[in-house]
Amino acid sequence: MRILAPLPLFLLLAACTAQTSSPGDGGVTLGTSTTGKNGKLQFAYVSSQCDLGCALDRPVVQGAMITIQASGADSTVPYTMAVAPTSLGMVTTTETCTCSSSNGNGGSGRTVGVTQTCNAGETRSCVVSGDVQTAGAGTASIEVLDASGDVVDSAPFTIAPADRIDQSVTIANQPATAASDGSYAAHVGDPIEIHSVVYSGDQKMVFTKHGLDPSYSDTEVVASDPNVTLGATDTEYAVAKAPGDASVTMTAVGAKATVVLHVSQ
After folding, report:
1. Range with the lowest mean pLDDT among 27-41, 119-133, 139-153, 222-236?
2. How many angstroms separate the CA atoms of 251 and 28, rounded?
3. DSSP assignment letter at 54
4. How far is C-alpha 187 from the chain's CA centre?
5. Distance between CA atoms of 150 and 74, rounded to whole angstroms?
6. Cα–Cα distance for residue pair 12/21, rounded to 1 Å
7. Alpha helices in the chain (DSSP H)
8. Domains along the chain?
């Protein structure tokens, strides 16, 4: 429910080679990838907050799951990922390979198995993807290990509680403005989207899943939209069901924000 599907591998690889930033650059550079400590791999977050992948220079919401992809590895070697220290998170690894080709009219790519070879004229490339379920707060390292358990490359990333959540609201597919009392007006049947931007200090945070938990004060008036099965995880999709007043609260570890809605016929 409301999970943003990752990009096709060959598109993500193109994005990650377009611009890079190093962990020591400081600040939020919003590049597409981070060069690993050993200079061998490029690391990128994959989330609703950065559809084309972004560098590991934004903090991850504590308690959330974040997908981190590493590209540039030897496509003939199986890899796994790990988080150090393990007290800050656990990771589930997936390795995906693509055979791609290009001509004067553009390029194409197809996903293949890790042990599958490409056709003549195609280039094989692989991305190692880790779904990191974060736990504690602090500076962690995402590590890519070969079959012998040796670290091929790694990159640091930060896990932190949220300081605040900024929200914008769309009602009936139009940007909505709050009334003087802070509430938003909707009519029965209106679709409602609540987009949340989570901050640690002045830095925008990232998460793939579980970064924000919604709660509804009165689901007879406003409830989760059952027709939305695919969407951005930083947006709550709701629908106005009956006249009345209701609120939707989005909660992250460390912060929460509430949208109050007045629904009329």
Report:
1. 27-41
2. 24
3. E
4. 32
5. 14
6. 16
7. 9-16
8. 9-160 (no CATH), 164-264 (2.60.40.1080)
CB distance 60 to 123 below 8 Å: no
Let me know: does 250 contact 167? Beta carbons within 8 Å.
yes
The residue type of 216 is Y
User: CB–CB of 15/32 below 8 Å?
Assistant: yes
Tens-digit pLDDT profile for residues 203-217: 999 999 999 999 999
Q: What are the angstrom distances between the C-alpha of 25 and each of 61, 106, 229?
A: 21, 34, 38
Structure tokens at 73: 């590895």
Question: Is 0.90 topped by the overall pTM?
Answer: no
Q: Which residues contact 7 (CB under 8 A, 6 or more apart)?
A: 15, 46, 51, 52, 53
**Half-sphere exposure at residue 28, Cβ-oriented, CA atoms within 13 angstroms:** 15
CA atoms within 13 A on the CB side of 144: 31
The pair of three-digit structure tokens given for residue 197, joined into one six-digit string = 């931007």
DSSP state of 230: S
